[in-house]
Amino acid sequence: MMAHTTFATTTRGLRRESPPMRLFEKAKRLGGWNPSTLDLTHDREHWLRLSDPERDLLLRLTALFQAGEEAVTLDLLPLVQAIAREGRLEEELFLTSFLYEEAKHTDFFARFLDEVAGGEHDLSRFHTPSYRALIYEALPAAMGRLATDPSPRAQAEAALTYNMIVEGVLAETGYHAYVTMLEAHDLLPGTRAGIRLLKQDESRHIAYGIYLLSRLIAADDAIWEQIVTRMNELVMHALGVIDEAFSAYDQMPFGLELETFTSYALGQFQKRLDRLEAARGRSLAEIDQSTATIIADDDG
Ligand code: MN3
Ligand code: FE
User: Which domains can be identified in the chain, with CATH numbers?
Assistant: First the structure.
C-alpha cells in the first residue's frame, strides 16, 4: 500500500454537487429499508393457493434473482478497490452503499425462499446455459480482472457487464416480470413491496455505472468501440436467459408473452447505449452536469 500524500476532505473538501455524492445522498435517504421487517404473512397464504406452474415460474425467477444478487455482492469489491486506489473519495462513499444494498437484496430473496416459497433449497436447475454464461462466468471474470488490471478498459468491461447488462438489462427485465405477474393479479404484497424498494436501489447502481462509463468514454474515445462490441455480445446472453425461461413451459403461467419481455430487454439495452454514446466528445464537467440532471429528475 502506498503512503497517503493528501486527503480530499482536508484539502479540497467533499464535492457535494458531484454525481456520486448526489447518489450517496439518495442512498442514505432511500436505501435504508430493512428486508427483515417486510410483512410476508399474506404472501405465504397466496403462495399456497397458486397453481403448480405458477409457483414453478415464480421460483424460477427468484432462483435467477437470488443467485444474481449473491454474485453481485461477492463480485463488487475489486471495483471498490480500484476506485479507492484512484483516490475518488465521492465515488467510494457511494460504493459503500452499493455493496450494502446488494447484501440486503441477497437477504431479501433468501427470506422469500425461506418464508414464502418454503421447502427445498437447491434451485440451481433453474440456472440455464445463458444464465451460467453471464452470472457464473462473464461477471466474475470481468470483476475479478480488476484485482490485477485496474486499467480504464478493464473498468469499462466491469461496469458494462455488471451495471449495463446484469443490472440494466437482466435484472430490470426480471422486475418487469415480477410486476407483470404480481401487480396484475394482486398477489404477494410483501414481496412486491420489497421488489419496489430493490428496484429503486438498483436505479442508483445503474446511474453510477452510466456515470463511470461516461467519464471513461469522455476521457478516451477509443474505449467506445470496445464497449459497444462487448455489450452487443453480452446482451445475447441476457436474451438467452429470457428465451430459456419461456422454453421451459408448454403454456406460460400468468399468460406471459415472450415478445413483451424480449422487446422490454432490448429497449433497456438501447436506452443505456444511447446514454453512453452521448458521452462521446464531452468534457468531464459536461458529464457531471448531465448526470446530475438525470439523478435529480429520477424520482427513484
Ligand atoms: Mn441488487
Ligand atoms: Fe445492484
Answer: 40-297 (1.10.620.20)
Whole-number Å distance, alpha carbon 76 to ligand 2 midpoint, is 10
* Each residue's pLDDT tens digit, 1-53: 679 999 999 999 999 999 999 999 999 999 999 999 999 999 999 999 999 99
Residue 220 has which C-alpha cell?
478516451
How far is it, in rounded angstroms, from Cα 21 to Cα 6? 20
Between the CA of 204 and the centroid of ligand 1 the distance, in Å, is 10
The pLDDT assigned to 121 comes to 76
For residues 93 and 24, the answer to whether their CB atoms sit within 8 Å is: yes
Query: Cα–chain-centroid distance for residue 189?
Result: 22
Residue 297 has pLDDT above 90, yes or no: no
Can you tell me the distance from the alpha carbon of 53 to that of 38, in angstroms, rounded to the nearest whole number? 26
Taking the C-alpha atoms of residue 87 and residue 269, their distance in angstroms, rounded to an integer, is 31
Q: 94 near 79, Cβ under 8 Å? A: no
Q: Do residues 134 and 69 lie in contact, with contact meaning Cβ atoms separated by under 8 Å?
A: no
Which residue's entry shows cell 413483451? 260
Alpha-carbon Rg for the chain in angstroms: 20
CB 209 within 8 A of CB 158: no
Cell 414453478 locates to 56
Which amino acid would we find at residue 16?
R
C-alpha 77 to ligand 2 mean position (Å): 13
CA distance 26 to 45: 34
* pTM, to two decimals: 0.97
State the ligand closest to the CA atom of 194. Answer: 1
Give the position of cell 453512453: 276
